[in-house]
Specification:
By secondary structure, the chain is an alpha/beta fold. It has 18 helices and 13 strands. The chain folds into two domains: about 210 residues, 3-Layer(aba) Sandwich (Rossmann fold); about 170 residues, 3-Layer(aba) Sandwich (Rossmann fold).
Length: about 400
Amino acid sequence: MKKKILFMVSSMNIGGVEKSLLSLLSVMPKEKYDITVLTLEKKGGFLDYIPSYIKVEEAAWFKEIKPIIMESPQKTIKKYLKENKVFKILTFIYSYYKSKNTDNRYIYYKNILKSIPENEDEYDVAIAYAGPTEIIDAYITHKVKAKKKIGWVHFDISKHKINEKLYENLYKKFDNIFTVSNEANKKLNEIIPSTVNKSEVLLNIISKELINEMAKEDINFDNEFDGVKIVTVGRLSKEKGQDLAIKALANLKKDGYKVRWYCVGEGNSREEYESLIKDNKLEEDFILLGATPNPYPYIKNSDIYVQTSRHEGYCLTLAEAKCLCKPIVTTNFNGAYEQLDNNINGIIVEYNEYEIYNAVKKILSNNNLKNKLIKNLIDKDINTISEINKFYSEI
């Protein structure tokens, strides 16, 4: 009999967490597993990439809960007043301020969870995949029936400022917690000590063969430009650090290098970055390409790949650039040294524009270094498909 597995995510928007889920789903045999992907909102550029034999569902209850989580408490109270829901106002005010005064959002979520129906199905394994995400972790722990429950931590929680008391309560209810790097696991154990005996590292699933195959897609990537092409992939946000790339390019242009920088991704910082590009007179040379479910042809056709993140759990795009054997410059977020050997198959720098600029310049002016970085990536086995066996042993 097939095992029933539930994965829960926010949506299938184009991002690292969603992409890592697609990679995991692609290697799970449909003969052995009956898989459901439950989304808070059934949307996103990766939806069409989920195999057809996998069920994709939307959490109907989230539409009602979303405003309570996302909007100010004043708006929620006004809504309840308008609907004449006096009891809900009282319980909401009590839970909100009690959780705020005690710095314990578990009290707040216990109140929210009362209005969420229990999931009607029963699973062998239920996985809060897009963690740490409060509502997803709370739903899996409290509203889903499963023989085993697994949490997944994709970020460095020391940088995301999770509510510790909430997660002390939630993580007690998981049987296992996967983290995506040794450093991310260490930070989790330091901040939530009760996770020490139940968390373990499971690297994101990466198939070098699949990435190289997808990279063959024919694209028009500024084909008329004959200078150096630098590519960065990631959501346009402060966290991903594209502002550092803009400033680094300004310095490279001052030095006379014929270079263009292309960013694949979309996000809330687009307007800010467009303004910064204009301020630095880089409209022709710093290109925001927008989001695409397949960034690999851009990486393949670049000369240098640069990761500018201020923090990561496990940087999937960095691992993918390694598969495509590009000279890499990356900032020193948690896990960078786990993925690269500094000055052997990539260059690791601190996250400021001057170090990024100097590292790129070093590659541009030293062909021997560039060739060494490429050769060492070609020689290294990058596949993490073996990690799937660790996952199977837990489910």
